UniProtKB/TrEMBL annotation:
It comes from the Bacteria. This is Hemin uptake protein HemP.
């Protein structure tokens, strides 16, 4: 059963930037999907089975 947002634990981690660049392997070290908040809207960045990135609203 999936947990809703109120039941999930908050995780904080540090991802380093070098020359204003971050590595996708660092972003996806804990899963295949990230949530991005931009101007109060939520986007999802997903890593596909073929290693491609998909950004959806």
């Amino acid at each position: 059963m999936l947990k809703n947002d109120s039941e999930r634990k908050s995780h904080k981690r540090m991802i380093s930037l070098e020359d204003n660049t971050m590595r996708s392997v660092d972003l996806f070290s804990q899963g295949r999907e990230l949530k991005i908040l931009h101007d109060s809207e939520e986007y999802k960045l997903r890593l596909t089975g073929n290693g491609k990135l998909i950004l959806t609203k």
